[in-house]
């Protein structure tokens, strides 16, 4: 193998990658993306370059091509091992070659190789992909273009040939030698309400009388300090739909691309029901590795990851149902369990857990999730209490596929809810464990609050299980549907469900219709959602629905380069190559066969530098960092971070607050005081938060016990002073109201509390 023939330490000004240009097209809830990497060799030697970059786990990459001297060279998708052999052979024979592949350890990391880039030569490489856009709780569609790829912690036993092992130069953001630009078009027949972004945009141009289209561009000077995120709000979003796309029988006589494909979008109208008597076992895995000491984002006053995590755990602990079981694991290079086994949720166990949460620090080294996961799964099940697992991590690991496989192997005994914290969290890990574990995934970046997203997941976990989920088709005679999506076993209120199917047989000559029905059982009641649709397939040159269907199949069957069983690998290879969608077992390879003579001269290797965030850099060996006057040494960086920690740390209850400042700080303190049964005690700590002396509280006590009075006052405070954060406290408030109804239950007590506090809270919130 001829590879590192000649290695030069050129300056950053000579890095061959000059710019990255992204074109985005969003139609309804599907994004189509073309990303072009522009290279130029300004040196006197032929080059081989390696560029490692992040991609979203849900991206269906279906095209890779090179523009060389005005000619387009389209890459072929081949078995990954064969693609590498072809590439190495071309390089050794001094021919120009291009390779694009997924990392062997994670679906959200890609590597692009350019071999034998001649002196003075310019090359534009374009990769294309399509992706479903996830639906946020507030109705927004979320598109994220990953720009941050933090260093990932290598565990023992991880593959040695990961793309992440390349000694890629790490540089400060200001020294990055290539530019980045993005333009986008958004369209919806329902009309666009608004578009928001975490990055500066040029003025948005809306088109059409009903704002059915919009054009967007990223403002100049974007730094790679955050992923580029768009939140798209349509005027109507929860509309079930079916789209049917023509196949391509000429080029694919026997594969998935041959027949029409259907994409069905359901918004199940799952009714609100009371949680069942079965409470569950709730296990929380909290990342306490060193990188959790970083802020969630680079925005001013962004909370430290570990501090947001601690507040979140306090909220979760107070929101747990009475009589459940729970445990907390803090993990890093090692792990610590709060209790030897899951314990019953009582006042004593809750207080002990709360004490330990307040002592948590980001001091456990690297990020190793697999070992504590295995310990959790080895514990015997608690009869009548199904396991609900919550995993919080910044996702900087390399053994992604091993972790996903472990969760998948235990999918029948639990549900797994996952949370990616901060910029650069692995979408492959976070989405992967939630998908195979039947839970939901959330990402916390920018101004997102981890607390709100965690409580939303807890609500999902407390929902009664939806059972007997099935999709049935009613089609004309001679036509049948083969579902391509994995079998759906879990549905949650407020979520969207997308199903892909291949339609085989004879399509109606005249315009016909079909019907698809989602069926499920909830607490013994049979429910169904029906959608009627046209059977006139539409032509799409990019075969978007077919590619997305193939991606859904690959995500369910392809469990990693070294993890997929041989029999399944055969099916994965066939679907991947037939549909042109990359997998962990395939790679795109292109050879420039029109070069008249082999490239001359010794070959020099150039690894394209990538940016690193300040916090992530603090976790790295100094040998990986490029010296820069703008980048302080490690000691001063850590000192800076400790100062940030001190300024952001929330004061605890007994630290002597000088005056009542209503808002987040007091909210956390108030919640910390709640008892496991949902009640509060009438004491000095509660009085300080309420801003009323304890003497006055006792003087105003109606004909009731002090705990009832304290609990009603606390609930009134929540509604009056923290209404905007209701999504974070509504579960624990519901527990408090249940306690009030059982122990006090008199409307006079509620009215007395509202009058005493001079609040405008409606007594109806208590059911009065």
Automatic annotation (TrEMBL):
A cellular component annotation (GO) from this entry: nucleoplasm
Residue ranges occupied by any VWFA domain in the UniProt entry: 281-462
Pfam families, per database record: VIT, VWA_3
InterPro entries, alphabetized: VIT, VWF_A, vWFA_dom_sf
Domain VIT: start-end pairs: 1-131
Name of the protein in question: von Willebrand factor A domain containing 5A
